[in-house]
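note to self: dont lose this again. the chain is below, predicted strucutre after it. 88 aa total, dont forget to put it in the shared folder this time
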Amino acid sequence: MIVKEVTVKNKAGLHTRPAAAVVKLASRFKSDFYIEMQGVEINAKSIIGVMSLAAPKGTKLRLKLEGEDALEAARQLEEFFDQGFGEV
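---
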């Protein structure tokens, strides 16, 4: 299992558009992908799950990936979070 800690960097937080983009990116990979926030873990391939986090700017999240392409998935997802979902 690969675990990465990321920070939500865009001003509006993890709202609808970036949540959908995270799910879309994650769905390209076969690996299981979960996001943990304050002890709550959601399936990150579920738009409802990701949106339910409602993570504001500055929130620290743990990305957990497991599967055959987890390393590449983790790299791309970490980069996407670091770039503020293209909204910074």
